[in-house]
Amino acid sequence: MGTWDIGPFDNDTAADFAGDLDEAALEAREAMIRSVLKRSAGPADFLGIYDGERAVGAAALVAAQHPDGDPACSTYGPSEPLPELPADPRMLAVDALDQVVSNRSELAELWAEAANWSKWRQDITRLRDVLDPPLPPQEEAMFEI
């Protein structure tokens, strides 16, 4: 197993997940993505590296269908088309990404030791911001209290 870059599918686990999606029937792909996100989104004592890597890939696929999202299909991502995903997996993906970067995540633990940790963290934040955009700061009050 290995990781060669910071992208959502730039590791063996997520690339294998993409291959599994390609081999699955079109109607089964949404359930596979949702299952990966559910597995990682819930509170847990510890999120293992493989669940975390699959969750980042699944979240990237959900974000790719958002109007502000970037295509998730790198060389190692799914090559077969995905069904149109409903909006409800977005918050599931946000929750999964929050778990991935938490102090209970083996993936975050390992990336914290890597030289390009900040780039990986920025990429995760970018995905999260597409799925749940931060509120812009309010410039001035509309009326005085």
Short description:
The protein is an all-alpha fold and 145 residues long.
Keywords for this structure?
single chain
Structural summary, described in words:
Helix 3 runs antiparallel to helix 4. The radius of gyration is 16 Å and the shape is globular. The chain has 6 helices and no strands.
Q: Strands, helices and their partners?
A:
Blueprint: H1 12-23, H2 26-41, H3 49-64, H4 89-100, H5 106-112, H6 117-131
Total number of strands: 0
| N→C terminal distance | 59 Å
Structural class: mainly alpha
Q: How would the global form be characterised?
A: globular
Question: What percent of residues are in strands?
Answer: under 5%
Arithmetic mean pLDDT:
90
- The biggest beta sheet, please? none
Estimate percent helicity. Answer: 40-55%
> What pattern of helices and strands is seen along the backbone?
HHHHHH
Task: Return Rg in Å.
Answer: 16 Å
Q: If helices are DSSP runs of H or I spanning 4 or more residues, what is the number of helices?
A: 6
- Which parts are unreliable, with pLDDT below 50 for 5 consecutive residues or more? none
Organism: Streptomyces cavourensis
Protein name: DUF4259 domain-containing protein
